[in-house]
Structures are given as C-alpha cells and as structure tokens.
Amino acid sequence: MIFSHQFYPFSYYSTAQIKIFARDLSDNGGSQNDILYLRPDATSDPYTVITEIPEKDLPFLTPDTFTGGMGEELLSEMTIQQLEIIGKKGGYFLKEAIKKAAKMAMLKGKPISRLKEYIDYCPAWQTEA
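The structure corresponding to this sequence follows.
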C-alpha cells in the first residue's frame, strides 16, 4: 500500500510550517496560492479560501485540511460542485478524510445534510481501500 504522504507531501507539516513555505515561495517570486490552495487550513481566512480554490487544484487538497474541528467547518463552506470534482478526481485518502469530517459535522448538528447525502450516495464517493 502506498502511504498518503507520497501523494500529499504537505501532510507532514504543521500549519505554521506551511505558512513559512508559502511566504518563502512568495519571497522568491512564486505564488503563495500554489501551496495554500493545497492546505487552506493554513491560511488566515480558510473559510474564504476553500470557496476560491480552482477546480484543477481541488483533487489535490491535503486530507489534513479536513481533520479536527476546522475540517468540519471547512466542509460546510464547500459546494456540491466542489465535491463532485473531488469525487471524480480526488484520491482515496482525501475522500475518506472528507467523509469523516462529514460524519462528525452531522453528529454535532452542523447544517451539512445536503453535502452528507451527496457524499453517501454519489457513486464517485464510494471508495475501497
């Protein structure tokens, strides 16, 4: 089995470290978004960033984005269209992290029933290890 860090290199790092990488990239002429779109939880406004991620970058979100309480909140900001793209092109670990965040959000009474239903019944979201 291939471990998730081979597909998601930023899963090794804390949000503080991700911010440093993004700043260094920017200081050297690159775009911070090349990193921050993969780890929106490391931004100063993750709830806005999660809604602005280009379609081409959605399948490459780091699963760590959806762990903990912030993951549940970030999921609640996403759209069905974003989940559709992730369902078609995203990897197993990303889908599983989002499924877990959805389950926890529902247990806590967060208003994501439409997203959870999509994840539960859309064929593209039915994953196997």
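Residues 4-125 form one domain.
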